[in-house]
Amino acid sequence: MSAALEQLAPEEPRFAALRRLFSLERPATLVASAIVLLFVAIALAAPWLAPHDPLAQSYLRINALPSAEHWLGTDQFGRDVFSRLLYGARNSLIFGLVSPAIAAVVGTALGVAAGFFGGIIDRLVSRLIDTLLAFPELLLAIMVSAVLGGGFWNVVMVIAVAFIPGFARVARSATLAVKQEPYIEAAVAVGLGTLKTIWRHVLPNISAPVVVLATLWVASAIRLEASLSFLGLGTQPPNPSWGNIIRDGLGNIFGSPWPIIGAGGAITVVVLAFNIFGDALRDLLDPETN
Amino acid sequence: MARMIVARLLDAVPTVLLVLTLVFVALRLLPGDPALVVLGEYATPEQLDLFRREMGLDQPLLWQWLDFLRDMLMLDFGVSMITREPVAQLIAQNLPYTIELTLLATGMGLVFGIPMGVVAAVNRNRLPDSGVRIFSLIGYAIPDFYLGALLLIVFALNLGWFPINGGGEGFADRMYHAFLPALTLAFVKTAFLGRLTRTALLETLGKDYVRTARAKGAREQRVIYRHALRNALLPVTTGLGLSLLATLSGSVAIELIFNRPGIGEVLISAIAKRDYPVIQGGVVVFAFFVVAVNLLVDLAYIIIDPRIRAQA
Amino acid sequence: MRTTRRHLLGQASALGAASLGLGAPRLAQAQTGPITIALASRAPTGLNPQKTALTGGDSWGIKQVFDTLVKSEDGTFAVRPQDFRPSLAESWESSADARSWTYRLRRGVQFHKGQGEMTSEDVVFTYGRQLDRSLVTNQKALYANLDRVEAPDSHTVRFHLKRPDPLFNGSMVTTLSASILCKKAFEERGAEAFNMDPIGTGPYQVDSVSPTQGVMLSPFPQHFAGVAASPLRIAFIADTTARTLAFASGQVDMIEGVRQPGWIPTIRQRAPRTIFDATAPGSFNSLHLNLTRAPLNDLRVRQAIRLAINNAQIAAAFSGLSVPMVGIVAPQFAGAVKEEDLPPDLRYGHNIQRARALLAEAGHPNGVTIQCFTSQREDYSSIMLMIQEQLRAAGINLDLRIIDHATMHAENRRDRNAMTLYSSSYPPVPWQPFLQQLLSSAEVKADGRGGENYSHYGVAIPGIDELIARAQDEPDFDKRIALIQDIERQVLRDLPLLGIVTLSYVIARNPRVDIGFPVQSGYAYWPLNRARRVA
Questions:
Q1: Contacts by A39-42 with C-beta closer than 8 Å and gap 24+?
Q2: Strands C70-71 and C85-86
Q3: Mean pLDDT calculated for residue range B156-179
Q4: What CA–CA distance (Å, rounded) separates B66 from C433?
Q5: Exposure of C328 by Cβ count < 10 A (0-12 exposed, 13-18 middle, 19+ buried)?
Q6: Is C357 helix (H, G, I), strand (E, B) or coil?
Q7: pLDDT tens string A13-53
Q8: Please, is C336 exposed, middle or buried when counting C-beta atoms within 10 Å of its C-beta (0-12, 13-18, 19+)?
Q9: Which of C136, C242, C424 shows the shortest C-beta gap to B47?
Q10: What are C29-38's pLDDT values in tens digits?
Q11: Phi-psi region of B254 (alpha: psi -120 to 50; beta: other; left: phi over 0)
Q12: Using the beta-carbon criterion (under 8 Å), do B154 and C46 form an inter-chain contact?
C-alpha cells in the first residue's frame, strides 16, 4: 500500500547498461531476475506442477499438518495449501500485470491530455488527480470494491483506479516538459494533426518514465491484491490468492503456521524480486529520473 | 506567509468539495440499502418506509446532496443511522487512536530511518550501505498485515510481552498497546526514510557549498551534520508527508489485526453496515488530513529553507 | 521408509511451530476483575431490546439487564407449552381457543437504580410500542398476530390474538424484544438515552457503555431471583483471529466461537480444557431455489441438486456443532420429519449418479451453471463453498460470488439471487420458518418491499398457503404439529427450499469460569447471573 507512494521517492544515481543488467557484477539483480522468471514459470505451469486440485475439498483431512502428500498441509476445507500457493502465483501474476497496465493506459491518456492541451482540461484532470490522491490507496480500493463487490475484473479495476493518479501525474509533468521542445512546435506548424503529434512525438518521449513506473508498480499491485484478499475484498474464494491463503491460515494458527509462512514468504520474495528488477530496469531505461 | 497559507487553504476547497461529492455518489451506488441493514430480517415494508422517511432517504438525490453539502460546510456530520450517536462524537472517540498510532510509527521511522540513511551515505558502497539497502528492500516487500500477524503471534500471544488487543486506557497503557502495531507500520517507514535520507544526503554531499565547506577545512562530521544533512531534510520532509498519509490508510489492516479502535476500523464497519453519515464523516476526516499534511509539508519547507521564505 | 519420512516431516513442522512459539499450550493465568465475554460485533449498538440493528453482542447485554414475563429453563428451549417457567409472571392461562392469554405478575419486582416497582403498566407499555405502527421497533413482524393488550389490574395483563396460538409463550413472550421496559425511565430519558443507560429488572444493572471498553455490568442487589455472583464485562471483538487470540491468551473468559470447519479442533490444540457451550440446533441453514429462474424452475434439476448435496458431510465438517436437516424444521424440534418416516420417493439421500441422470433427463447432459452469491460471514461462506464443491461432482457449476453480509441481505431482498442460503435462529415454534420463508405473502419482490420467500413458492407453485392457514387455525398443539409435518412433506415434494444443516451457536469458555448450568439449546445468548470464577 504505502510502498507505491513511497517508491516515487528519488533513487540514488546509478549508471547501468543493458549488459550490466544481468552481469555478475550485480548479483542481486541476477538473483532477482531469476526469481521473477521462476515466479512467471510457476504461474504459467501451475496446472502441471500442482500435486492436487486447488479447489478439491476433503473433509477427512481438515487442517492437516505438512506431510509428504501435502507439503504445506491442508486448510479448513481439506484443500492442499501447496497447490493453492502455486495457483496463487498465477493469480498474483495476472493482477500484477493487468492492473498497472490498465492504470498506465488510462493514467497516461489523462496526463498527456492535461499536459498537452492545458487550460480547462488540465484544471479538470489535475483536480481529479488531487481528489483521487486524497483517498489513501487501500481506502479507495475498499470503497470501490464495496461498490463493485469482489470478482476478478472488479479487483483489477479497483487496483487500477488506485494507480491511475500516479501515472497521470508522471505523464502530465513529462508531457509539459516535452511540450517545450521545438520539434513539437514544428510538428504543429507543419500541420500535423493533434492526435498524430501526440502519437508520434509526445508518447515516445514520455514512455520511459511511464514504463518504469508500471514495472515498479507490478510489485505494488501484487501487494495490494494480497491485502484486499486478506481483508476478504479481493479474489473470490474458492479461487486461491496469497492473501486469502493467509486469511484462511490465521484461522488455524494454533494448528499449523505453515500456510501463513508459505504464502507470506511467497509475497515477500516475489515483491522483493520485482522491486530489485524494477530498479535495475529504471537505471537502464530512464536514468534521468534519478 | 499568512497569505500563502490562506491561498493554499482556498486551493483545497474545490478538492474537498469534489471528494465530498464523489463519496456521496459512491455511497448511493453501493448496492446495500441502509433501511434493510438497520431494520434487519423482520422488517415490514411499512417499517422500511418509515425509516427511510426519518433518515431523509426518500428525498430526491439532488436534494439529499444539497442537504449533505450544507451540513458538511457547517461541520454537521449528523448521527449514525445505527446507534443514533453523533458522528462527530464517534470520530472524536476513535481518531485519537489512529493519530497516536500514526505518530508513534512515524516517530519510530524517523528515529531508525534517518540515522540509518546517514550511516549508509557516509559508508557508501561499503558493508553498512549494503545492509541498509537490503533492509529497505525487505521493508518494502513484506506485507504489513503479514508482519503484523507474525509480531502479534510471537510477541503478544506466545511471549506475552504485549497486550493482544484493544487501545488501552491512560497515556502509558495506550502507548504500550500501540507499540506492536506501530512497530509493524514503522518497518516500511524506516525502510523508506532510510533510503530517502541516504539519497538526499549523497546528493547534497556532492553540491558546491559542501565542497566549499570541505575545502575550507571544516571537519567531515561538521560538513555532514551542519551543512549536508540540513539540506537533505527537504526531500525527507516531503517524503515524511507522503509516508504519514500512507500510514493513515495502512492502519486499516493493522487496526483490524490488533483489534484496535481507530478511524479506519470505524470506516470499514460503517461501509459494511451502510451507515452513510459515518462513512461520509470518516472520509471527510481523511480528506482533511490530506490537505492538512500537505500544508504542513509546505510550512516545513519554508522553515527549513530560508530561500523559500524570502519568496513567500 | 515412508513412515520415517512422514515422522520426520511431522517433527520438522513441530520444530517450526515451536520456533514461532506455537506448540506450547500455555494455561491462562487466573484473572481478577469482571468475568469477560467477547462477542463477534464491532461495538455495542445499544441495550434497548426494541431497538433495530442490534447485534448478537447486544443481545447478550440485554439478556442480563432485562427479564421477560416467562422464560425457558436456563440453557434450554421450551419446546412444548408445559415447558415454560415463571419469571416476571408467576402464573398464566389461556382461553380454550388459544386466542386470549392472561398473566399474573410477581409482586414487589424492582427496577434498577430506584426506579420503582414493575407493574402491568410497564408490560402494556412494552407491548404497546410493538403494536404502535408509527414506531420503528425490533422484530415487529413477530407481533403481527397480536391484536391488543390490556391490564385488568396493576398485576394482571391480558393479550388478545387474531389467530389461535397454542405456543404464544414461545412466539412472543420469551423473545428478547418482549423484554419488559421501565415505562417511567423510558419516557423520562427518551429512546436514545435509554438505549445507552437502560433500566430493567434483570440480574445485572448497567454501569457504563463504551465503544472501546464494551458494556460494564454490576449485580443488581434487589433482583427477585437472587444476586448475581460476579461483575460482568461484555466486550466486542469482531475479527475472528483477534477474538481467538484474546481467548487463547487468557485475556477474556469466553468468546463467541468461529463457525467454520476446523475451528474447534484448533482451539483444542491450544487449550485442551476449553469448554464449548453450544446450542442445538442453533441456526437453521436452508437453501432457497428460485423457482422463477431456469434451470431451477425444472423439478428434475432441483431434485438433482438435492441428491448432489451431502448434508451429513457438511455437518461432519463442523466437528459436532452441526446436524444434517431433512426438512425445513430442525430435527431437534417438534414438527420435523424423520427420513425413515417419509414415503420412499421423498427419501433423497446422496446420489451423484441419479443426480447426473436427472440433469440429463432435464436436457442438461453437460451440466448446468448457476449464478448466485452469499455472505462472507464465515458460516455462510463455509457452507456455500462446501455445497459448491459437492455440486461440482454432479456437473452443477455454481458461479458463486462472496460479498459483504449487508450487501447480501439487501440483494437477496431485491430478488437478485438464484440460490439463496438463508441462516436464521428460530425458537421451537415450528410454524415460524414457514410463515417467514414459504408463504406467498412473504414472496420476495424486485423493489425490495417483499419478504423472505426467496424461492417464490406459493406463487410459482401455488397451494402452500392453504396448508399453512389450516395449521395456523388449529388451536391444539399436537394436531397443529401433525399439520406442520404435512407441510414438510409437501415442501420435500416440490423442493423450493432445501434444509441443509443446523449450526450451533457456540461460546468457547475458559474452564476457570463456571456458568452454573449446561447449555443445550436456546437462543444465541444466555443468562450469566450464576457465572463465577472457580480457579
A1: A39/A89, A39/A93, A39/A270, A39/A273, A40/A93, A42/A86, A42/A89, A42/A90
A2: antiparallel
A3: 84
A4: 44
A5: buried
A6: helix
A7: 344 445 555 555 677 788 888 999 999 999 999 999 999 99
A8: buried
A9: C136
A10: 445 789 999 9
A11: alpha
A12: no
The dihedral built from the CA positions of residue C376, C380, C383 and C387, taken in this order, carries a sign that is negative
Minimum Cα–Cα distance from B140: chain A residue? A3
pLDDT of residue A24: 57
β-strand partners of C461: C457
The per-residue b/e assignment along A79-117, b for 16 or more CB within 10 angstroms, e otherwise, is: bbbbbbbbbbbbbbbbbbbbbbbbbbebbbbbbbbbbbe
Mutation target to probe the B interface, by most B beta carbons within 10 A, among A5, A12, A95, A227 is A12
Q: How many residues does chain C have?
A: 535
Residue A269, pLDDT score: 94
- Does A115 lie at the interface with C, CB-CB under 8 angstroms? no
What mean pLDDT is predicted for residues C7-11? 42
Query: How far apart, in whole angstroms, are the C-alpha atoms of residue C284 and residue B87?
Result: 36
- Cell numbers for C417: 439471487
Cα C378–Cα C500–Cα C297 angle in degrees, nearest 5: 110
Q: Which of C136, C411, C452 sits opposite B51 (nearest CB)?
A: C136
Q: Which residue of C has its CA nearest to A152?
A: C401
A136-153 tens-digit pLDDT: 667 777 766 666 666 778
Cβ contacts below 8 Å, chain A against chain B, sum to 152
Mutation target to probe the C interface, by most C beta carbons within 10 A, among B46, B150, B158, B278 is B158
Q: Which residue of C has its CA nearest to A256?
A: C17
CA distances from C69 to B183, B252, C113, C176, C522 (A): 53, 45, 20, 11, 17
E strand spans, C291-337: 322-324
Q: Is B252's Cβ below 8 Å from some Cβ in A?
A: yes
State whether C313 and A59 contact (CB < 8 Å).
yes
Q: Is residue C295 classed as helix, strand or coil in its secondary structure? A: coil
Tell me C474's DSSP state. Answer: -
pTM, two decimals, is: 0.83
Q: Which residues contact C162 (CB under 8 A, 6 or more apart)?
A: C99, C145, C146, C147
* A155 neighbors A190 (Cβ within 8 angstroms): no
Provide the shortest C-alpha distance from residue C187 to chain A (in Å): 40
Q: What is the mean pLDDT of chain C?
A: 89
Nearest to C429 by CA among C333, C502, C524: C333
Would the CA dihedral through A5, B297, B194, B118 be positive or negative? positive
- Asked if the interface predicted TM-score (ipTM) of this complex is over 0.90, the answer is no
Angle at C199 between CA C194 and CA C205, to 5 degrees: 120
Cβ-nearest to B18 among A127, A226, A246: A127
Percentages helix, strand, coil for chain C (3-state, rounded to 5) are 35, 20, 45
Whether residue B84 and residue C195 make contact (CB cut-off 8 A), yes or no, is yes
Please give the sequence-ordered ranges of beta strands (E in DSSP) within C354-460, or none if there are none: 368-375, 396-403, 419-425
Nearest CA in chain A to C262: A76
Chain A environment of B140 (Cβ under 8 Å): 3, 6-7, 219, 271-272, 275
Determine phi and psi for B114, rounding to 5 degrees: -65, -50
Interface test with C, best of B28, B30, B41 (most C CBs within 10 A): B41
| pLDDT 10s digits, C40-88 | 988 888 999 998 878 889 999 999 999 999 999 999 988 888 899 999 9
What are B216's three cell numbers?
575550507
Give B122→chain A minimum CA distance, Å.
14
